[in-house]
Write a structure and sequence with these properties.
This protein has 433 residues and is α/β, with parallel strands linked by helices. The chain has two domains: 388 residues, no CATH class; 44 residues. The protein is built from twelve helices and 22 strands. Strands 3, 4, 6, 7, 9, 10, 12, 14, 15, 17, 19 and 21 form a twelve-stranded mixed β-sheet that branches. Strands 2-1-5-8-11-13-16-18-20-22 form a ten-stranded mixed β-sheet. β1 and β2 form a beta hairpin. α9 packs across α10. The relative contact order is 0.09.
Amino acid sequence: MVKEISAIKSEPEWMLKQRLNALMQFEAKALPSWGADLSAINFEKIHYYLKPTDGQVKSWDEVPADVKTTFERLGVPQAEREVLAGVKAQYDSEVVYGSLGKSYTEDGVIFLSMDEGLKQYPELIKEYFGKLVPAGDNKFSALNTAVWSGGSFVYVPKNVHVQLPLQAYYRINAPEAGQFERTLIIVEEGAEVSFVEGCTAPNFSSSSLHSAVVEIYVKAGGRCQYTTIQNWYQNVYNLVTKRARVEAEGEMIWTDFNLGSKVTMKYPGFVLAGKGAKGEILSMALAGEGQHQDAGSKVIHLAPHTSSSIVSKSISQNGGRTSYRGLVKATENATSAQNSVVCDAIILDPRSRSDTYPTIQSLNSQVKLVHEATVSKIGDDQLFYLMSRGVEEQEARKMIVNGFIEDLVRELPMEYAVEMNRLIDMQMEGSVG
């Protein structure tokens, strides 16, 4: 099957070798014994490659009608017209629609599907692919490396600032389907880019698997913000590896909003490799009945005067479970490094649960590492105050939750902030999906 995927895509021999080597590592590795329960995943039943169209098109009018209907409901063409510098839309295993604003193309910005990127820039892909997230990193990075299809390749030349967000939409549209997109972003010195991904899937009786890998390289003085708004249906196992490497005076920001899915295990991170490099992780997770959102971060300080901050907020309701799982590590060379971790959780009923699993490792005495965590519930006095002024109880709960995450939502572009608040409202009503 792996050989067939590679043959369909007419890949170079070195990529096929990487795939087959990764398959061996996937088969040799056990499922994680920590975090969420993954024992129900049946790897033999998953469809690893589903081709929805005959190829990628550049014009929205050329997209097949059934695919177009799905993405029009998600707002893809509308989003492109109004706020985006470029759009990629992936339906099952393949990117079916792609475009990039002309002005950015003239500046040398590359925004392609990973399949196109491999065909057009094979040496550039070979230089970076799998170096930051090797196949052997974990069982699911091995699986992705073996069967990856679709995803985005972004290259921003030196000192080019992409003012509007690039965006990718990922849609699983078949039962027992797997989606294994691979994303590679290279931000050269002094360059800047913002990338937003949205993820959705409809309801099927059988489970689906989403196992992506994202690798981001931020060169000296560069800046990248990567935003995820996921709204998988509650039959999806969302098991993702995301990592960035940041050079001197560069900056990486992960903004991560996790709704939906049966299980999410996702720990976006960065390696602060150059002096003065900065990183920030802003994450939110909401878990309802039958859901476990096991999210967090991984931060490694390799160089002096590096700084990082992590803000994690979670909401548990109707028996749902959220977990923060994080690693902060300062190495011998990370003199004067600073890190701050803040975990805030709201539990909305006695059946729900929230956990925090922080790990802090310091090999240097001249660093400042701070961790704080709070767990609370919606207070009766808050509800009473709002209800005494004519607000219905359910609406009052929504208002309190939206206030709880407001500082994170404020980091989103306006259009996505509105979408995020609507998704939260629907989730509070139990109507997402």
